[in-house]
Design a protein that fits this description.
The chain is of the alpha/beta class and 299 residues long. 32% of the residues lie in helices and 23% in strands. It folds into two domains: 135 residues, Alpha-Beta Horseshoe (Leucine-rich repeat, LRR (right-handed beta-alpha superhelix)), CATH 3.80.10.10; 161 residues, no CATH class. InterPro entries: LRR_dom_sf (IPR032675).
Length: 299
């Protein structure tokens, strides 16, 4: 969270580093210090920016972000707009981006949806916003875990039709998705490698059948919506094994709620001396990437 002192020096610092600045991340965690006015003052010095991530800034709307993308020379390759002001108008932002062809190079986008967002308008605007982008990574989540945020199958179908041949990562968190839409994603996103979804244990068999349709998956993460036994690691490990046993052998990482495992394959021999492989799980251990950063994003 940038302090008042950091905000004070930010314009002069950005002005000095602007010609070489390629990525900017601002994480405010509800701070009101980062505003549209601040971003508008920084925009003229950030024309070479490739990546922009603004997170948890309740005073930032389409106006400030729009100024940054409209002054950008080459077009962003990655953008994350998460937990901004409820007054963020996606229609206005879409119009700004279209006018400047701002997303002509965009490969990755992360969007957070407020519970009060009019979803029909929002999904229509997002569809148009991404229509010209060479998109490879799409991450969408609700700011509050709720069953009230329901994005229609038509939206997911349109996204897959436009970008399925390129999408490598598809993440849908804190909201549910229909089995039909999930199967469409898995079967038509031909190069999909990473998939993050929310479901219930009641639907786990049906969801796993959808996963099996994705022939190039490397990593799967499942969050179980509204269930109270998420801390029981043995239960989650059993769920993870159930999933990987039915998925392509390409899967090397599996996560359930707050746990992540490596998937390994043990070679065994049956009574007829035939070799076969059995998937096993090993806890994810990587000193550079803490486990909690591998799971779907929270508040």
């Amino acid at each position: 969270m940038p302090s008042a002192q950091v905000i004070d020096v930010l314009p002069s610092w950005i002005s000095a580093t602007g010609p070489t600045l390629r990525s900017l991340t601002m994480i405010c965690q509800t701070s009101s210090l980062t505003t549209d006015t601040l971003l508008e003052s920084l925009a003229p010095s950030m024309t070479e920016l490739d990546q922009l991530f603004i997170i948890g800034c309740p005073k930032v709307t389409h106006r400030g972000i729009g100024e940054i993308v409209s002054t950008n020379r080459n077009g962003l390759t990655s953008i994350g707009l998460e937990r901004l002001s409820p007054a963020f108008d996606m229609t206005s932002f879409n119009n700004i981006c279209k006018a400047h062809r701002a997303f002509r190079r965009l490969r990755s986008i992360t969007l957070a949806v407020h519970i009060e967002t009019p979803l029909q308008t929002w999904t229509s605007d997002v569809t148009e916003l991404l229509s010209t982008a060479p998109l490879e990574i799409l991450q969408i989540y609700a700011t509050t875990p709720t069953s009230q945020v329901v994005i229609t199958d038509d939206f997911w179908k349109t996204i897959v039709t436009m970008h399925g041949s390129r999408l490598k990562r598809f993440s849908i968190d804190r909201m549910t998705i229909s089995l039909g839409a999930l199967h469409d994603i898995c079967s038509r996103c031909s190069v999909l490698e990473q998939l993050f979804v929310v479901t219930t244990r009641h639907n786990l068999d049906l969801v796993t059948r959808c996963f099996a349709a994705a022939r190039n998956l490397r990593a799967i993460h499942v969050n179980f919506y509204g269930e109270g036994d998420e801390s029981e690691e043995r239960s989650m490990m059993n769920d993870a094994l159930h999933i990987v046993r039915q998925c392509p052998a390409t899967v090397t990482q599996i996560g359930c709620d707050t746990r992540v495992w490596h998937v390994r394959r043990e070679v065994r021999m049956n009574d007829e001396s035939e070799l076969y492989t059995v998937p096993t799980l090993a806890r994810y251990e990587n000193p550079d990437i803490p486990e909690q950063f591998l799971v779907a994003r929270g508040a």
